[in-house]
Amino acid sequence: MTNSSMKRAAAATLAAALSVATLSTAYADITDYEFRLVQTDIKQGNGAIVAVRLVDKRSGKAVPDAVIFATRIDMAPDGMETMAAPIEALPSTEPGVYRFKTNLMMAGGWRLSLGAKIQGETGTLENKLVLKAVP
């Protein structure tokens, strides 16, 4: 085998390896992420803190720096969807954990609805999480 044919064979092998690697690369999708409640039972009352962790379901790792642009908390699990409470974002205490302050005025089931954009991903992540306000 001549030097030039060895180079061509090596180049062809490299090209084949790169195309296989490109085809087998798994791309993330917005459905690969989800919010999870840090605690499902939260003390009832004004100033209640609800914390959620944004997780990459493929690796189980927390995802920091998401932009949460939609939040709502209401009593839909107890059949009172129109009973909503104000909710405000708080600073995070750890990467990938997002905290909110709200008024869980009644004990019972509450639904936290979140809408977020994740850096580097297309689409919008939307999750509805159910928690319980306890006396």
TrEMBL record:
InterPro entries: YtkA-like_dom. Keywords: Signal. Pfam families: YtkA (PF13115). Residues 28-114 form the YtkA-like domain. It comes from the Bacteria. Residues 1-28 form the signal peptide. This is YtkA-like domain-containing protein. It comes from Xanthobacter autotrophicus (strain ATCC BAA-1158 / Py2).
